[in-house]
Amino acid sequence: MKTKALSVVLILLAAGLLVDMGLAQGIRKPVWAGQFYEADPSRLAYLIDSYLLAANPSPVPGQIVGLIAPHAGYVYSGQIAAYGYQLVRNLDIATVVIIGPSHQVGFEGCSIYLRGGFQTPLGLAAVDETLAGELARISGFGYLAEAHQQEHSIEVQVPFVQRVLPQAKIVPIVMGYQTEETINRLASALAKTLPGKKALVVASTDLSHFLSKEKARVQDSKTIELLKSMQIKTLLRRVERGENIMCGGGPVLALLLYAQKLGESRVAVLSSGDSTAAGGPSDRVVGYMSAAVYLEEKAQALNFNEEEKKELLTLARQSIQHYLQNGEFLTYATSNSKFLEKKGVFVTLKERGELRGCIGFVEPVFPLSQAVVQCAVYAAVQDPRFPPVKLSELNKIKVEISILTRPEPVENISEIKIGQHGLLIQQNGRSGLLLPQVATEFGWDRETFLKEVCRKAGLPDQAWKKRGSLFKFEALVFGEE
Q: What angle, 0 to 180 degrees and rounded to 10, lies between the N-to-C axes of helices 232-240 and 180-193?
């Protein structure tokens, strides 16, 4: 009896035994209902809701782009998983991309479930076929039926998604061998595909497997610290070596790299624990963690996809043309919430690679679309360094837009990073501003950058040393080609 009970425990703790069931792409039937989680719909809904009710995650200071969630039997990791899902409950999320490691089949790359849906006791979670197809096209990964047939790492996440985001579709992705190439390809595809699509990424993983309780505690603590400090290279080396830190290390790293491509990102650990809390053996422990991956507020402020950038550049050009033709500002209506947020903006005009005008608002005083309209016109006709732009030369001019974060005081000049930060100095009624790209274009080092921003304000070269007068900011810079 003890041997049989231990076998059941190990099934729930780790990957489970193979079940003799065929599967073709379309509607995937539940394989692990009744083993990893309840098969009865009412009991399953009640269980998940009770986990969610007991979870009290701390809010994170930014936009959540992903979760790290455990995938063991619910009796072991369900409560921990609930912390992440409670945090995103009822958010405006249209699609959840679920990435899990392959426990049953070895293969190169990833298998993306392209059509149909996942059936659970709670109903059908439909696949977002459009988004799945885009990810497949950009990544080059296809669909391997065997990868999904018995895989539990995806399946156990779906009921949670159904309870907290009932309208969301899913894109299930099983990762095979967790190599650097596969991880990077998937992360790049996510970064090119997901922005602007109201998507959440769930990386499915448990922590260390089958160590003693004390060794597991030490190992998992180290892994959690590496995640919190975004030590991606270190984690990647350990995952590629097959170290016993995370069975889903590849999916987690794909999520972290994707978030990093969006901007300044962070990991907030919401809950952690191990299998002994539910009666698992203390000499063969499995660790679990729930975490949120989020963009810091300043990175969130600069999160615009390629279509949105093109729309803003077109708006700037049309604004100049309309003003030159009619002598009035263009009226522009939009339903894009990002364009309605107040932002600091600069519009730069260049003709044959030379500056032709640049004016902007440092502080976020106007909605973004309105600020772009006004700055584009001001750069064209009110920059005192240049004569007003003529309609006949507009086709020779290239437009560049810089969307700014709020300026922050510089406590130590070591904080200033060339190419990342712009500088603003305000002193004795004078002010000067240089955008981040200026230092890069002229090849300045930090000391030269500081001297030049002082000169821009008409101040002595060392004026930046006066405490409280120097500010740094970041900018999303994009322009016409």
A: 130
Tokens of 8: 């059941």
Among residues 203, 2, 194, the alpha carbon closest in space to that of 84 is found at 203
Residue 228 belongs to domain with CATH number? 3.40.830.10
Biggest CA–CA distance in the chain, Å, is 91
Count of domains observed in the chain: 2
Two tokens, residue 201 = 């990424």
Eight-class DSSP state of 323: H
Which pLDDT band, with edges at 50, 70 and 90, does 21 fall under? Answer: very low
State how far the Cα of 392 lies from the Cα of 324, in Å rounded to an integer: 10
Q: 18: which 2 tokens?
A: 């193979």
From CA 267, how far away is CA 61, in angstroms rounded?
11
Between CA 309 and CA 318, with CA 312 as vertex, the angle to 5 degrees is 140
Between CA 27 and CA 404 the distance in angstroms is: 46
Please enumerate in sequence order all residues whose Cβ is within 8 A of that of 225, keeping only pairs 6 or more positions apart, or say none. Answer: none
Given this model, what pLDDT does residue 355 score? Answer: 95
What is the spatial distance between Cα 328 and Cα 349, in angstroms, rounded to a whole number? 19
Strand partners of residue 33: 37
- State the Cα–Cα distance between residues 359 and 402, nearest whole angstrom: 10
**249, 272, 301 - which closes a domain:** 301
Average pLDDT, integer, range 21-25:
45
Could you list the residue range(s) of the whole structural domain that residue 148 is in? 2-301
pLDDT, tens digit (0-9, with 9 covering 90-100), for 467-476: 889 999 999 9
Enumerate the H helices of 194-271 as residue ranges.
213-228, 232-240, 249-262
Residues 244 and 347 in one domain: no
Parallel/antiparallel/unpaired status of strands 26-28 and 116-120: parallel
Separation of CA 425 from chain center: 32
pLDDT tens-digit map of 193-222: 998 889 999 999 999 999 999 999 999 999
Please check whether residue 251 is in contact with residue 269, taking contact to mean a CB–CB distance below 8 angstroms: no
